[in-house]
Amino acid sequence: MLIKEHPELFPPEIAFGYKMKEIRVSKKLNLKIRRIVIAGVSYTIRPSFAMPYMTGFVKDVDEKHTRLLGEKTYIATTTGSKLSFRVFHERALSLHGNFKNFFQANFFEKPPTSSADRVNGKKIKSKGLYTPMKFGKYLFHITLTRDAVLPAYKGSTFRGLLGHALKRTVCALKNQTCATCILRQNCTYALVFETAHALPAPENAKISAPPHPMVLEPPLTEKREFAAGDTLACGMVLFGDLNRNLPYFIYAFDQMGRIGLGKSLNGTRAGFTLESVTFGDETVYSKEDGRVTLPDILPALDLTPDQDENPEHVTLKLQTPFRISTDTGQAPNLPFDLLMRSLIRRCTALFNTYGDGEPPLNYPELVKKACRVNLTDNSLAWFDWQRYSSRQEAKMYMGGLLGQVTYQGDLGPFLPFLRMAQTVHAGKNTAFGLGKIDLETMNK
């Protein structure tokens, strides 16, 4: 009852349920305190007459508020006559040193095993050259509750709605821009959608701005009209520590279904129900039990080459538009050295920002070898795609290459990059799902 009457006082994940934990006794005030668990995070419920951190009683304090950025902010908040919920939310984490333990927990009661040590329960055999970067690949399964009209390419639709729902979920200082918000380095929305403002460029890194820590993989069907009851699946790849914020993305997807998707029909957009979220064969959320179970072990990406694998031919399929800055304009041509320059930049930027640092690569030598690889079969075509940016109030032209291309030559040194690109995508605007690559064939 209390949760329904005052949802603003609770973390958004409480909508998916909670469970009781232990009862503790405060040594400072000799009061019983109940602890509960929400999405793997421990929270404390305390009496409303007790101050935060059990520093005293409310009746003994004259001023019960402070000021944050010029706005009155209450220290103790009453949620009824007997209980008050002490909210640990990411938007307040950077304001007080006592939240340090929450940061260390990182949304986990038991932090997942480091992907640098184990993947799928097996120890990684590191050759000492390339350190891994952990990632999580999730699939959000939805069922439409109304008829829907969606664009042929759905990346912009899902990403735009996700940004709107996520910001509405986590943003604490509504009147602040992300660029000036003091919470931006700990805000899920800013980390994903305003990455350049939330994260400084890694020290000594050869990148101007950090890459986005998320890649969306929208449904690839070009079908545009859907009926109520139809199902869709939208993929999401999260890099590094952002996987610990998965409950926020699940809650945001749930809210997306309430906001509505696609073109407005008869004044209403198509709603949907989030049925489940899967991580490989594991279900991390289902509508039936309403609970989030975070993965115990995250897989890892690295650039360790396999010395025994050196195919003569590689065929790549560009499943979503591949965009790259080039002087060739819209020419349907992708020389191997141009592809590899793009992949090397992206992979090293990701390792720099979300992994254990830049791998020790011999860049000039790699580029020289890439120039000696030949393009033997090219069935690429330019795909024109545009989206409307509500933030910039303008149409954005985001066309790119689609189709299949085959290369021949000494390809062994480049296979780790090509395999990694299947997960992290390649080229520009990967956050929209662009640059999805499949390694189709490898012929000896």
UniProtKB/TrEMBL annotation:
One Pfam family matching this protein: CRISPR_Cas6
InterPro entries tied to this protein: CRISPR-assoc_Cas6_C
Cited Gene3D superfamilies: 3.30.70.1900
Domain CRISPR-associated protein Cas6 C-terminal: 316-437
Protein name, entry field: CRISPR-associated protein Cas6 C-terminal domain-containing protein
Species per Swiss-Prot/TrEMBL record: Desulfobacter postgatei 2ac9
